[in-house]
Amino acid sequence: MFARLLDSIVSGSVEIPPPLWEQTRAALPFLRRFDTQAGASLRELCARLLATKVMSGAGGLELTAAIQVAIGAQACLPILRLGIDWYRGWSGIIVYPSEYVARRRIQDESGLVHEFEETAAGEAWEGGPVIVSWDPDAHAPENSAFNVVIHEFAHKLDLLDGQADGLPPLDRRLHAGLDPHHWRGVLEDVWQRFAAAVDLVELDLPADIDPESDQADPYYARLPLDPYAAQDEAEFFAVSSETFFVSPQRLLDAFPQWYELLSRFYLQDPLAA
Ligand SMILES: [Zn+2]
Description:
This protein is of the alpha/beta class. It has helices at residues 3-10, 18-27, 36-52, 65-76, 148-159, 180-204, 217-220, 233-246, 248-254, 256-266; strands spanning 54-57, 92-96, 100-107, 113-120, 122-124, 130-133.
């Protein structure tokens, strides 16, 4: 039905058919909060993103126009008020059907090289592609606070200054009132408090429950964010950004000061829309 979208991408411009846009909005609850004007801006931005980035399917995924637009729309949510320029310096978006196995190669301090495999739902490389998986996160099922697309694109914003540290570059004009030292202080505080909360949950986990198993989920569900956010400040920023756009009340209730900073950085307040 929407196969022509793929053709138009090749020619350098994209027109998203209104029925396809409506279908995308209907499938993603957090896109429905926008009024007509903001919705139109998001659609226009999404068309620009699809025209300027190269999206490709991997792992046997057949990239349909519906998938392209759904991923494009979610990717554009964080930059709705910042602009497409915030995704400069790279061009590829790779989409896997679901979690995939990534081969890693790291060198330790003694120079020994370790190679191993791990499953991943997405990745963002500095100056390189964004990798996301379609199933299940990018569908954003109702009530889910997880969103792999927003997560990886938030990493891209953080990486724009060359450092994955949870502090994206601040624009002198757009972010005039935001102070990087204040940001770092708040981030450090909320991240450490969250990491302590994760430690408490883990202490509470019965020894016979594998923390990686589904049985552990009810324990982690007490946390306001995905426990992965405890990893480091960069992951805390990416996970918080997911929650900020998809389940904002949850983030506001847990970390109001941090919510306010994110709102001033993204120039949006999802709860006010
Ligand atoms: Zn991450």
